[in-house]
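ingest -> validate -> predict -> emit
validate: passed (alphabet ok, no gaps, 177 aa)
predict: started
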Amino acid sequence: MKRAAVLAPGYGGTAEQPILRALASALKTFEIAAQAITFRTRGSRPSKDYASEIEDLRAARDALRGDGYDRVALVGRSFGGRIAAFLAAREPPEALVILGHPISPPKRPRPRDEAALAATACPTLVVQGDRDELGPFVVLERIAANNPRIDLVRIAGAGHDFGARESEAQCEASASS
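emit:
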């Protein structure tokens, strides 16, 4: 069985985002190939309904499948995790991992994000700082309580960027993929 993961960066990030590079390296130790992507819309506003970003993720997934990988996980950091959840709600992957889900920024609830995550039909891991201002842990707990496929990992003392706890978040993600 050949396993792979598509790694999607946070908003404005690239395939060279440090957490993605570290995650790709860690996945190799588990014999999981990793393909990090850069969204075509980087440097500009996201596309309408995230259509371009979803297509970028889908194309990377399909390319890996075309290369003979029969199990492909979607892994996203922040914005990349949002996009991965949107694609997973439509076309469930073998697994979904989100590192820092910006599901509910202050005074800007995202019901579409909540619905996409709630609809997850594949094994899903959300690694979240318990001080993440963009993704309150309580929101994720509520969603996970109604979907047994979602596992949450709390990174104590970490905000949205994980800070000094980034390697802990990366370790949790690579172990689950």
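The two ends are 14 Å apart (CA to CA).
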